[in-house]
Amino acid sequence: MNADCYLITGGTGYLGRALIRQAGHRGLKVAATFHTQPQSLTSDVGWYHLDLREPAAVMSLIHEVQPSVIIHTAFRQYDPDLMAVTGEGAGYVAEAAARVGARLIHISSDVIFDGEKVGAYTEEDPPNPITDYGRAKARAEALVQRYHPAAAIVRTSLIYGFEPIDRHSAFALAIARGERSERLFRDELRCPVFVEDLATALLDLAQSDYRGVINFAGAETLSRYEWGRLLAQAHGLDPDRIVGGFSAESPTPRPRNCALDISRARHLGYRLRGVHEVLRALGRLTERV
To answer: What burial class does residue 40 get, using C-beta atoms within 10 Å of its C-beta: 0-12 exposed, 13-18 middle, 19+ buried?
Structure first.
C-alpha cells in the first residue's frame, strides 16, 4: 500500500478541487479521478480517468494506486446513469477499498430523507428518500456499509464557496442580478456548509478511526430563500430581488426539511461554521438580513 497517498474520486468536482488544494497544503501525496473533464487542474496530482459504472475499472484503478485513504466525492445527480454512478458505483469503490485495506470516507447527502421530520436529522435517523437522487445516495450508503463496514459515511448539505463560486450560489446571485426569474423556497431548510470547512473536516476525519455515519454540515439552518438573501447582500446586491416561493410549487417532490444535527461532529472537535459566521470572517457581511 502507498502509505501516504490519498485518492480523491471526482477530483474535478467542486469539493474534489477543494480537497486537492488542502491536501497539497498539508504535503499529502494525492491521486484523483475524473470522468468527462480533462486532468488539467494541477501537475502535482496523479490523474486517472474512471467510469464508476465499470466495476472492473474501479477495482483495477484502486489496486494500481494502492491508496491509504479514499475520499469518494464522485456522483451524478440528474443524468440517466444516476443510480449506476451514484448508487452502484459507490459500492464498487467500497468493495475495492476494503480489498486493499484503504480507509474510506464516503460523501452522502441530506436529501436521503423525506424532509417531514420536525427538527434536525441525527446520524441515527434512517434514510427515507423521495427523489431519484436521494434514492441513489441511500443505495450508496447501504452498499458502503455492506462492503466496507469500517468506512465513514459523511452526510452533508449544500456546499458553497467563492473562489471559485459554487453553482448553488451562482444560481441565487443570477436571480439577485435579474438574470433569472426563479423563486427560492421559503420552506426548504438546509444547512449550507463552506467548502473549505468541509474539506478540512474530511481530511481530519481521514486521519481518525471513526466508522459509520456522521453529519458534516453548516452550523446554521436556513431556508433557500434566507440563504439567497444573505448571498445577495454579501455580493453587494439587493436582497429584495430574491423572490420567495414554496416547495409545493415544484413539479416534482422535494424534501422540505433537510436540517442536519452536527452535535456529534462538534463533540469530536470538527469546526463547521454557519453561513453568517463564514461571511463575516470573509468580510462580506456586517449585519443580518
So the answer is: exposed
